[in-house]
Amino acid sequence: MSMQHLNARSSLASVVAASIATCALAGPTWDVDYDDDAGQTAPTAQLITINSPIINIFGRLTGYGLTGTDLVDMYAFEVTTPSFYTISTAGGALGGEANFDTQLFLFRKKGGNGSNQRAVALKANDDASDDSFGSRIGEGAANSNVVYLNRGIYFVAITGSGMEAISNLDDSIWEDFGQFGETVSGEERELSEWDGSGAVGDYTIRLQSVQGFVPAPGAVAVLGVALLGSRRRRGSR
Fold it and tell me: Within a 10 A sphere around the Cβ of 114, how many other Cβ atoms?
């Protein structure tokens, strides 16, 4: 990777951090999981019906119990205006928090309705940094705190460290999470189920549209290449 691209990504991360820090921390709360447990696949994901640029998703993973296993919570949300988003349990300016070691996963709906809905893997992050057990979804690089989402229906899943997303080919979608802070691509592989035994506890996921954010010129060029590649992949299907 060229020094120009590295500098562009660094500028992008700095501007985003400043933009997020100046946003109001208040936002509506979604805490339905406490009374109606969120599912763990596309058909059973809990649909967030709040319309707000900032949503704080409160929930709890309880682990193994008399009523079943609760090691994954998955939420569906719709993006109507393309934008940069922060999706975080990392705390600080990014928001969100948890009292256990989290993992965050981002999926996109691809075809199907009701019980036939399918979710394809986009991105995942384990640790937001080398001194954090919280997670956040970025574009890829370890210093990226935002992800660009086009119009569509997406799913965000939270698990404790140790859980694995299993594809429809019965193998792990993410075999590792790279270096600290890195967001790893899921290569649009289809989610089938989950496996493993992860940490559990209470969490808040901050889902925030970073409106008014304008990347540095070099960062725009980097993003443009990524978006062009995405369009080409869609066009080849």
Answer: 7
CA–CA dist 140, 196 (Å, integer): 25
Each residue's pLDDT expressed in tens, for the chain with a length of 237 residues = 444 444 444 444 444 444 444 344 568 999 999 999 999 999 999 999 998 999 999 999 999 877 789 999 999 999 999 999 999 999 999 999 999 999 999 999 998 888 899 999 999 999 999 888 999 999 988 889 999 999 999 999 999 999 999 999 999 999 988 889 999 999 999 999 999 999 999 999 999 998 644 444 444 443 444 444 444 444 444
pTM of the prediction? 0.79
Tokens representing 44 are: 């059973």
Report, in angstroms and rounded to the nearest whole number, the Rg of the chain calculated over CA atoms.
17
Structural domains in the chain (count)? 1
Pairing of strands 152-160, 184-185: unpaired
Q: DSSP secondary-structure letter at 45?
A: P
**Range of the structural domain that residue 191 is part of:** 3-235
Distance CA 153, CA 110 (A): 9
Alpha-carbon distance of 215 to 144, in angstroms, equals: 12
CATH number for 205: 2.60.120.380
